Amino acid sequence: MRDSVPRRAFLGRTVDNPRLAQAHAETGRLIRSMLATAVHNGKECGEVPDDTDQDLAALELHSLAEGLALQLGSDPDATTSRTALALVSARVQAVFPGRCRQYE
């Protein structure tokens, strides 16, 4: 997260710059869309339970990654990279608990 200063500066500028705010929002929607597609695909192959809300799971994973990036960038002592990776891994495993039938 060594490049977190430009990232935080960008996020700060989204408050008073509508074009940057729009770019940030569009990027977030794109990321969540790709995550939702991954969850949907996981449902089709058995990795993800059928009753999982793909949009909610995408929002959860995106929010976790964004929040951890902000924490690591603004206060490196708040958590370690290893802890952050463990948190992300635990949530991904919770969303994708099964094994894909494609590989059986």
Would you mind describing this structure in some detail?
- The protein has 104 residues and is mainly alpha-helical.
- It has helices at residues 4-13, 18-45, 54-74, 81-95.
- Helix 2 crosses helix 3 (54-74) and helix 3 (54-74) packs antiparallel against helix 4 (81-95).
- The chain is flat, with a radius of gyration of 16 Å.
Per DSSP E runs of 2 or more residues, the count of β-strands stands at 0
Helix content: over 70%
Based on Cα principal axes, name the global outline. Answer: flat
Q: Which structural class do the helices and strands define?
A: mainly alpha
Distance between the termini: 37 Å
Instruction: Please report the number of helical segments.
Output: 4
Rounded to the nearest angstrom, the radius of gyration is: 16 Å
Reconstruct the topology from this structure.
Layout lengths: L3 H10 L4 H28 L8 H21 L6 H15 L9
Helix pairs in contact: 1-3, 2-3, 3-4
Give a quick summary of the entry:
With 104 residues, the protein is an all-alpha fold.
